[in-house]
């Protein structure tokens, strides 16, 4: 049986850009080292927060190589490979060099709005093609379809290499149902920074985090405190982020965290269309919170 190794603070890595819009690989290197030193437990690369729909195949390949070169095997790497065309996802899996990558993150098909049986067959086919452990990604707010717990647990029972789910349905009731019915080798991973405290308290194994790009030390400490049963101390850290959770996403992701990283001096505040930077008002509010957290 394959067990999940993606636990604790996973950073949903952003893609820095230069002022002219090209990928800023030097800033990426600095950011990776900062996150490793700050207590990140694994990286999640080339997914939504990394603006993957707006990257070329060559850019994705070079970003992967840079991450592997900087990481040097220190942390597990979870790489996104998903879509709403099952055969195309399988083809990408078969033609990708997975050396140095530890797992695949694959999203529920978006736009098509498949039935629960369609979701089951989609992921079963991907599981059969995958050479690596799979973490499924359930985010109904983006895909338009919610993978129900019974569908997920059916997949876990039938596919030995499905080891986790990045759960971003926003439903703690759904999280509880999954955790109650899951085998020990399988983990729920929070896909929502604001719900991470509650989800870990309920038995989740960690988070794939946006805020972890900028504040890995504080956010990883909260999770570790929870793992140690020190919930009151963890709750205090969680509450220091309450306003920031909202501001980070109010103008879309990753606009918020890129503005935060820009204020911290790590990156240019540049996104690729159709995404645009967060508003000046939001950026100023986050800068004030950052001063208090520093």
Sum up the structure in keywords:
294 residues, 13% strand
Quick description:
This protein is 46% helix and 13% strand. By secondary structure, it is of the alpha/beta class.
What does this structure look like?
The structure is a single chain. With 294 residues, the protein is α/β, with parallel strands linked by helices. The protein is 46% helix and 13% strand. It has helices at 25-37, 57-71, 86-94, 116-129, 140-143, 149-158, 172-181, 196-202, 216-227, 231-240, 242-250, 255-263, 280-293; strands at residues 8-12, 42-45, 77-80, 103-107, 134-138, 162-167, 187-190, 206-209. An 8-stranded parallel barrel has the order 1-2-3-4-5-6-7-8, surrounded by 5 helices. α4 (116-129) links the parallel β4 (103-107) and β5 (134-138). α4 runs parallel beside α6 (149-158) and α12 (255-263) crosses α13 (280-293). The longest helix is centred in the N-terminal third of the chain and has 15 residues, at 57-71. The mean pLDDT is 97.
């Amino acid at each position: 049986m394959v067990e999940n190794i993606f636990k604790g603070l996973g950073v949903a890595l952003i893609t820095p850009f230069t002022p002219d819009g090209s990928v800023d690989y030097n800033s990426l290197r600095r950011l990776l080292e900062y996150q490793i030193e700050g207590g990140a437990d694994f990286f999640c690369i080339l997914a939504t927060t990394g603006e993957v729909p707006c990257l070329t195949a060559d850019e994705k390949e070079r970003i992967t190589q840079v991450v592997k070169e900087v990481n040097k095997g220190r942390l597990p790497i979870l790489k996104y490979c998903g879509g709403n065309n099952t055969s195309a996802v399988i083809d990408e899996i078969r033609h990708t060099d997975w050396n140095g990558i530890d797992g695949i993150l694959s999203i529920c098909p978006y736009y098509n709005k498949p039935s629960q049986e369609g979701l089951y067959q989609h992921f079963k086919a991907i599981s059969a093609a995958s050479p690596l452990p799979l973490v499924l990604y359930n985010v109904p707010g983006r895909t338009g379809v919610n993978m129900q717990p019974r569908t997920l647990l059916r997949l876990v029972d039938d596919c030995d290499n499905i080891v986790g789910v990045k759960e971003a349905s926003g439903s703690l009731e759904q999280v509880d149902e999954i955790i109650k019915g899951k085998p020990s080798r399988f983990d729920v991973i929070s896909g929502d920074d604001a719900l991470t405290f509650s989800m870990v308290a309920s038995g989740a194994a960690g988070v794939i985090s946006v805020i972890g790009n900028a504040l890995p030390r504080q956010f990883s400490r909260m999770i570790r405190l929870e793992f140690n049963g020190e919930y009151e101390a963890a709750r205090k850290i969680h509450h220091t982020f309450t306003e920031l959770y909202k501001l980070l996403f109010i103008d879309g992701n990753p606009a918020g965290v890129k503005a935060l990283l820009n204020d911290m001096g790590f990156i240019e505040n540049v996104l690729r269309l159709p995404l645009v930077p967060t508003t000046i008002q939001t950026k100023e509010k986050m800068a004030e919170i950052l001063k208090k957290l520093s």
